[in-house]
Design brief:
Helix content is 68%, strand content 0%. It has 5 helices and no strands. Helix 1 packs across helix 2 and helix 4 packs across helix 5.
C-alpha cells in the first residue's frame, strides 16, 4: 500500500481516525495517519488551534468518548 493510500484508508475508515478530519479540518490525511495515541491528538489539536492543553484535552476526551485512536 502506498503512503497516500494508507493515509486515505486511515482517514476514511470506521472509528476515530475517520472522524478526525470532520471534527478538526486543519488536519491532513497524512497527519491523521501519523497519530499514535490520543495524547498525540491532544498535542496536535493544541498546536493547530492554539488552545491550552486543558482545553485541547477536554475537546479530545469529549470527541473520543472513551474510544482509543
Amino acid at each position: 500500500m502506498t503512503e497516500t493510500a494508507h493515509a486515505n484508508a486511515a482517514t476514511s475508515g470506521p472509528g476515530m481516525r475517520g472522524e478526525i478530519s470532520a471534527k478538526w479540518g486543519k488536519f491532513s490525511s497524512a497527519e491523521i495517519a501519523a497519530l499514535k495515541s490520543k495524547d498525540d491528538l491532544v498535542s496536535q489539536v493544541q498546536t493547530k488551534y492554539q488552545l491550552d492543553k486543558a482545553q485541547a484535552q477536554k475537546d479530545v476526551d469529549a470527541f473520543a468518548k472513551g474510544r482509543q485512536l
